[in-house]
Design goal:
Helix content is 45%, strand content 15%. With 334 residues, it is of the alpha/beta class. The chain is globular.
């Protein structure tokens, strides 16, 4: 399976989604600190290998996004982690952006990493990656997001996507409108609409193959600091309305980020959308914390807890696969 259209379709087929395990070392360190574990290279490998070997990876996870350190690591038995992922029926992928830089006095950002990207993609392909991820960050405030911020980020996403495809890899384009703040669901809808409109316009103008691309967007939610938040049905209907207005039918899949939602909210929102239906793309998940957090809390850095941690990840992976098919129910969580 080397054709990017086939790879993209496979990753999101049959309710499968993506495990985002591409946390940078500083982010991984914060997560480990929350459970009292020192973040060393070997400990990060041990944790991720434990996740990748979980029984529930099979059939539920179609792709795994890796960090640069992880794609180069071998499992304890000498097998590469890339091969461990493949053996579970998932496609190995890689985060290729190089973080954010501030672009104006509003503290808006544009994502770095286009310089040298072709060479990095070529190397990652040789290491076994068959898809890539690039994250743009859009903040909501009184006078933002600005047109400059949206246009520069969406143009970078399109340029990245073209380079990834030229290297035989599926690009995941991630225009994340942050949950952070006290904005309304309507403000989130407006910022997300502007971002998606600009993104697909840029992708089309640069000749990116949409059938070999996956979108990783935020859901349309109230800001995290709002006390009276939009309910599950409102989030689902507003998110679908936004996507249907801007996302072309030929895109194989929309794999949502969880963006700070709780594990259950991320699952419930996804399920509600799939129960509504009425779209041609696969609607699934690309969750990091919302898949990993229950496993992390059980693992606690101790290999004696690995089987329990794997069971926790397997459960969340299955719940989200069911949600991707509109078959999840709250009762299944108990």
């Amino acid at each position: 399976m080397e054709n990017i259209e086939d790879i993209a379709s496979y990753i999101v087929s049959d309710g499968k989604g993506i495990l985002a395990a591409d946390e940078s070392n500083p982010t991984c360190t914060k997560r480990f600190e929350s459970i009292g574990v020192e973040s060393t290279e070997d400990k990060r490998r041990e944790y991720r290998e434990m996740l990748f070997r979980s029984e529930g990876m099979k059939g539920n996870i179609g792709g795994v996004i890796l960090f640069d350190e992880t794609i180069r690591q071998d499992a304890e038995d000498g097998t590469s982690l890339v091969e461990v992922i493949r053996n579970q029926g998932a496609v190995p992928g890689i985060k290729v952006d190089l973080g954010l830089e501030v672009i104006n006095d509003q503290e808006e950002t544009v994502t770095k990493g286009l310089e040298g990207l072709n060479e990095r993609c070529s190397e990652y392909y040789s290491l076994g990656a068959r898809f890539t991820k690039w994250r743009a960050v859009i903040k909501i405030g009184n006078t933002i997001p600005s047109k400059e911020c949206i246009n520069r980020n969406m143009e970078a996403l399109a340029e990245y996507a073209l380079i990834a495809q030229a290297n035989g890899m599926v690009p995941i384009v991630e225009p994340e409108v942050l949950m952070d703040g006290d904005h309304s669901i309507d403000q989130c809808y407006e910022a997300s609409s502007r971002s998606l409109d600009a993104l697909f316009s840029m992708l089309a103008s640069k000749g990116v193959n949409i059938k070999g691309t996956i979108l990783k967007p935020n859901m349309i939610t109230s800001g995290s600091n709002v006390t009276s938040k939009a309910n599950i049905d409102e989030v689902a209907s507003m998110t679908l309305k936004c996507l249907k207005s801007h996302v072309p039918d030929e895109l194989p899949g929309v794999a949502f980020l969880s963006g700070g939602q709780s594990d259950l909210d991320a699952t419930a929102h996804l399920d509600a959308m799939n129960k509504i239906g009425g779209f041609k793309w696969a609607l699934c998940f690309s969750y990091g914390r919302a898949l990993q957090q229950p496993a992390l809390k059980v693992w606690l850095g101790d290999n004696k807890n690995s089987s329990l941690a794997q069971a926790a990840l397997s459960h969340r992976a299955l719940m989200n696969r069911l949600a991707s098919q509109g078959r999840w129910e709250q009762d299944l969580e108990s």
